[in-house]
């Protein structure tokens, strides 16, 4: 169309002022859709005319144009920012759930100020939203990391009052959004889990993994759903990749869930992991072995792999930002290794990591030395805490969760205390 010889005759810059507002907006959208070069005189003429007429456009026309520009032009569009300014000034004209939902999901990430107004309007219209509207709003909040508690509470209440069974896509998106925002609403979780359970058998491995990981993020255990996920993994072993299986194991460990048929389940897990450890990323492998330790299913080959000197060096020096926490996981795995065998593994690193004493925990993470003070109950290797693989320690945190030196403060719960100061107001041990 653009290359047709008669196309330029359609763009009559001299008569642009005679075009009606609605037609002008549709014309601009069409030109963007056709990929007309923004440097052409006719294109610039249409854009300039729209800019001049922004005050005369209705709110619905402004909203429609903003949605289109956000998808087509992105945040750098000058026209989009001008349209958003008009929307912010005229937000009281906002009517209808469709416009609210569309603006929140498509334009809200461009303007935090507009998103604040949209959240207020959504709270006002919460009762009128359909389940799909609620899904789109919660996803918009999740993707923008906006934990608007009043709005989430209102949406959750009205969602729990709707007795119609929700579709699979809505259920998965809702629990994902709640998990990403770390927002807890037990009534909604119960409804989602109950509605999800009949769908598990027909879901894909990606959907199953996404579902159980969302519940794990929330630390909300639903036994029937977790049993259904475990049975699904057993019935569809050939469809599962090792990554999907790792996601399920990490989720079960976070929920501290043991399947009723744990012997069959973990036999399948060990068979799938055989020969696959080398292909896993260091971070995922460390978390996997740590999760198996939590579930009491760790085996010597897994522990030898993560306690090898070369692997230990990788997670301490070459990993991503989150890898800073991995040495602590390795400490726990090292202590778990001591439960399975009375002697160190053949390739155990010559590092304090191999020592089961409380001091090794501190030396493996020097940044914790000023903050952690080993308790007397953890100093004896024969104590019950040591036998179960735990090292007891304590921290003092301010009301803002900032650490304070433990030795500076009185500890009446200990036989002897070095510090004399009382805890500051709001601090806790």
UniProtKB/TrEMBL annotation:
What's a single GO CC term here? mitochondrial matrix
Low complexity bias spans: 351-388
Disordered: region residues: 337-429
Query: What are the BP-aspect GO terms?
Result: mitochondrial RNA processing; regulation of mitochondrial mRNA stability
Task: Cite the GO molecular-function annotations of the record.
Answer: RNA binding
The source's domain of life comes to Eukaryota
Query: Any idea what this protein is called?
Result: FAKD4 protein
Lineage runs: Eukaryota, Metazoa, Chordata, Craniata, Vertebrata
- Gene that this sequence comes from: Tbrg4
């Amino acid at each position: 169309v653009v290359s047709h010889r008669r196309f330029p005759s359609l763009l009559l810059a001299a008569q642009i002022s005679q075009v009606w507002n609605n037609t002008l907006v549709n014309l601009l959208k069409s030109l963007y859709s056709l990929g007309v070069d923004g440097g052409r005189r006719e294109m610039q003429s249409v854009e300039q005319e729209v800019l001049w007429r922004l005050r005369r456009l209705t709110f619905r026309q402004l909203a429609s144009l903003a949605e289109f520009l956000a998808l087509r032009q992105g945040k750098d569009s000058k026209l989009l920012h001008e349209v958003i300014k008009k929307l912010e000034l005229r937000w009281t004209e906002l009517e209808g759930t469709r416009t609210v939902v569309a603006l929140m999901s498509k334009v809200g990430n461009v303007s935090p100020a507009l998103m604040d107004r949209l959240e207020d309007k959504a709270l006002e219209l919460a009762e009128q939203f359909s389940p799909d509207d609620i899904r789109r709003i919660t996803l918009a909040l999740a993707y923008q990391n906006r934990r608007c508690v009043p709005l989430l509470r209102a949406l959750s209440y009205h969602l729990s009052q709707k007795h119609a069974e929700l579709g699979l896509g809505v259920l998965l998106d809702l629990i994902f959004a709640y998990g990403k925002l770390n927002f807890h609403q037990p009534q909604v979780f119960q409804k989602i889990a109950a509605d999800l359970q009949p769908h598990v058998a027909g879901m894909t491995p990606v959907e199953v993994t996404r579902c159980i990981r969302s519940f794990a993020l929330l630390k909300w255990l639903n036994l029937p759903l977790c049993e259904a996920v475990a049975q699904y993994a057993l019935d569809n072993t050939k469809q599962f990749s090792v990554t999907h299986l790792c996601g399920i194991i990490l989720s079960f460990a976070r929920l501290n869930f043991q399947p009723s048929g744990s012997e069959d389940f973990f036999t399948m897990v060990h068979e799938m992991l055989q020969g696959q450890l080398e292909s896993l990323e260091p971070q995922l492998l460390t978390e996997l072995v740590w999760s198996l330790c939590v579930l009491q299913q760790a085996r010597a080959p897994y522990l030898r792999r993560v306690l090898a000197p070369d692997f230990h060096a990788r997670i301490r020096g070459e990993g991503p930002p989150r890898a800073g926490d991995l040495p602590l996981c390795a400490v726990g795995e090292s202590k778990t290794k001591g439960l399975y065998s009375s002697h160190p593994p053949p390739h155990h690193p010559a590092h304090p990591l191999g020592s089961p004493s409380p001091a090794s925990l501190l030396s493996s993470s020097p940044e914790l030395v000023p903050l952690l003070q080993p308790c007397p109950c953890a100093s004896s290797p024969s104590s019950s805490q040591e036998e179960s693989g735990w090292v007891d320690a304590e921290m003092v945190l301010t009301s803002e969760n900032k650490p304070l030196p433990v030795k500076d403060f009185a500890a009446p719960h200990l036989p002897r205390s070095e510090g004399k100061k009382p805890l500051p107001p709001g601090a806790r041990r």
